Every structure is written in structure tokens, then in C-alpha cells.
Amino acid sequence: MENRLPLIAANWKMHKTIGEAVSFTEDLQKETAPSVDREVVIAPPFTALDAVRRTISRPDFKLAAQNCHCEEQGAFTGEISAVMLKDAGCDYAIIGHSERRHLFGETDDMVHRKLVAVFRHGMVPILCVGETLEQREDGSTFKVVDAQVQQAVLGLNPQEARLLVIAYEPVWAIGTGKTATPGQAQEVHAFIRERYGALCDKSVANATRILYGGSVKPDNVDSLMDQPDIDGLLVGGASLEVNSFKRIVQFKTTKK
Questions:
Q1: CATH superfamily ID and name for 7-249
Q2: pLDDT tens per residue across span 188-222
Q3: Residues assigned a catalytic role
Q4: pLDDT in tens, 45-54
Q5: Using alpha carbons only, what angle is made at residue 28 by residues 215 and 19, rounded to the nearest 5 degrees?
Q6: Which residues of 135-150 are buried (b: 16+ CB within 10 A; e: fewer)?
Q7: What pTM, to 2 d.p., does this model score?
Q8: For the chain, how are helix, strand and coil distributed in percent, rounded to 5?
Q9: Hey, where are the domains in the chain?
């Protein structure tokens, strides 16, 4: 197994003003020591991207966008392009989050086109996949996740395939207080890695970081990060408070 640098991402969704985003980023950098064994990614709302970029002062902190449009420019009121996000200093862009899929009707084809746009402009996509409660209960978790991954990664070159970050987020665990057990999460992560290896290459899949998201909290972070195929976390509500997210960033694991 290749050494995969853990990635802990804060997805603030529609929270925080510019001032709040700057204050949080300053405080988190003060209260955590610089690290070479993990990467911290902050995904603020679009309005705070530039301010957070200017506040980040450490190489282990990176900036992410929460979404982007697949086109370079055009008459798309309210949208933002990958070229604009790169210009704003983004390193990553979250693509295909379940809230985008289920609240805003994003299809697998739309997710694929966005992913391609993000790579085209020198950023790394964080591709979100995951099943609903109904799909889990009817036994179609693996089928759903497999289809989402397959359609998203069509046409990626080997370097893109290796850089891509995949985030497994069971929809039923996002914002509900329910969390997949470490064993449930590991089972799906291992499946994603195996299928990704079949789609791309086994060595590529072994280098690919797969994150878990879904009601991650300080009290379950260590057990999640102990799982062999969980390489990081995409954190929603628990990333809004510095003390909470600090503990998640400072996860402890016995994994080697």
C-alpha cells in the first residue's frame, strides 16, 4: 500500500461571513502545529475565498471551492467557473456533493463535466459519491457508488486519475447525526478502491485518497481514521467551530 497523505477538509456550506472565515482560519492556524503528515483543506463560501486565501500562511493548509460550473464562461447567472476559482487561488474543488445532486438536480454527467473542468484548470477535484438511506436498505449501495465513480472518471488520464480525491458520503449520514460505523465506511471505501483499480490501474487506486464524510465528530474521528482505506475526512457541521475541527485535524491513529 502506498503512503497516502491524510486530507481533512472543512466544507462550510452556506455558513460564515468573510470576517468569520478569516477569524476561523487565523485561529485554527494558531492552535494547530504545522504538519507534514496531514493536509488541511478549507472550503468557505465563494464570497470568502480570496480572504481565506490571503489568511492561509502555512503549506499544509489549502483552499477549496464548494462547487463550480463546467463551462469557462457564459450566460449562467449565479454560477462560477473553474478558471475563476483557479484565479481566486483554489487548490481543490468539491464536485458532486449529495446536496448538489439531490437539492439542485446535478446528474452524473454534469458531475463528470465539472470534474474535467477542474482538472483542466490545474486544480484537484474532490469527487463526492454515496447512497441514500433507501438505497442502502434495498441493498444497492455498491451498485450506486460504482455507477457514480464510473461515470465521473470517464476519460481521465493516468496523472489525473492518481490525483483525484474521492469522498464517500452516505447521504443518510449527512447532517442527520447518524454516522456509518467505521466498519460500514471501511467496507465501502475498500470497494471503491478495488473498483477504481479495475477502472484505472491498481497502483493508481492504491495512491488515491478516499475520504469519509457524514456526521464526522471529534468523538468518532480516531476510529474512522484507523480504518485501512479511509485516508481523510470531509467534514460539515463539525468544521464550523475551531475547537471541534481542531480535534478532528489532530486525529490520532494506530494505522501504519
A1: Aldolase class I (3.20.20.70)
A2: 999 999 999 999 999 999 999 999 998 899 999 99
A3: 97, 169
A4: 999 999 999 9
A5: 95
A6: bbeeeebeebbbebbe
A7: 0.96
A8: 45, 15, 40
A9: 7-249
